[in-house]
Amino acid sequence: MGDRKPYPSDVSDAQWALIGPFLDVWRAGRVSVAGRTGEQDLREVVNAILYQNRTGCQWAYLPHDLPQKPVVYYYFALWRDDGTDAVIHDLLRCQARQKAGRAEDPTMVVLDTQSVRAANHVPAATTGKDAGKKVPGRKRGLAVDALGLIIAVVVTAASVTDNVIGIRLLDKVAAHAPTVTLAMVDAGFKQDVAVHGAVTGIDVEVVKRSDTMPGFVPVKKRWIVEQVYGTLMLHRRLAREYESRPESSVSRTLWASIANMARRLTGTSTPTWRDR
Question: Is the residue at 216 inside a domain?
Answer without folding.
Answer: yes
